[in-house]
Design goal:
Elements (H helix, E strand, L loop, with lengths): L2 H28 L4 H45 L7 H84 L2 H13 L5 E5 L2 E2 L8 H9 L12 E3 L2
Parallel strand pairs: 1-3
Antiparallel strand pairs: 1-2
Helix pairs in contact: 1-3, 2-3
Length: 233
């Protein structure tokens, strides 16, 4: 096998290694919790906190209503017991009963509003929890697929590294040094194919004499425009 063909094979391996390495980086960056998942969990916790506060307020309001109702009952029991004969005391009891009745009405109105708000927030919580379940299910499936892809990429990179070492062992030190220098300077692409007399690196026609030599595999020839090594196989 000619040196230029070995160099071209090395280029194919290095290019695929670079591609697979980039894909592996993307996979690794995609592993872990997504912003969507974190946000969905945060939304659920936010709703839980709201519902918890509303339920606590509702329990406190229930106690207030019960307390006022108890005071009102005691007031009415005393007022209608027949034991209160003093007109002034009776009038005070009536005024107190009216005030307690108004207070109870106010508390019950607030109680109703709070119950409605609690039901609405509970519905919002249930909706967010259902959404979180779906997002988590999709996320787990995506993570499993990414883990499989990661394993495949890592295995392929190991194969490519073995191929790379084998090819480099067949190439002379001078040619390897030239290849590595070109690769570093030209964005990782040191060797390109020439098809129908055209360099596939820069898409420019190659001089006829050089093109014929490249096609015959005679020596190492470089594109005059992009400086890459030409392979005519």
């Amino acid at each position: 096998m000619s040196v230029v063909r070995d160099l071209y094979q090395l280029q194919l391996v290095d290019s695929e290694s670079q591609q697979k390495g980039n894909q592996l980086e993307e996979v690794n960056s995609s592993l872990g919790e997504t912003a969507e998942l974190v946000r969905a969990r945060s939304d659920v916790e936010e709703s839980k906190e709201k519902v918890g506060k509303l339920r606590s307020q509702l329990r406190a309001l229930d106690l207030d209503v019960a307390s006022v109702s108890s005071k009102l009952k005691k007031n009415q029991d005393r007022m209608y017991s027949g034991k209160v004969r003093n007109p002034k005391e009776l009038n005070n009891l009536q005024e107190e009963a009216a005030a307690l009745g108004r207070r109870r009405d106010e508390l019950e109105d607030g109680q109703l509003d709070l119950m409605i708000e609690t039901v609405e927030e509970e519905a919002e919580l249930a909706e967010r929890e259902a959404r979180l379940v779906q997002i988590e299910a999709n996320w787990r499936a995506d993570q499993a697929a990414l883990e499989d892809e990661k394993v495949e990429l890592e295995l392929r990179l190991l194969e490519l590294e073995e191929d790379r070492n084998g090819i480099r062992a067949r190439i002379g030190a001078a040619e390897l040094a030239d290849y590595d220098d070109l690769s570093q300077r030209l964005g990782g692409v040191a060797v390109v194919r020439m098809k129908h007399g055209v360099c596939q690196g820069c898409r420019v026609d190659v001089a006829t004499g050089v093109a014929r030599a490249v096609e015959r595999g005679e020596g190492l020839h470089y594109c005059m425009i992009c400086s890459r090594l030409l392979y005519g196989g």
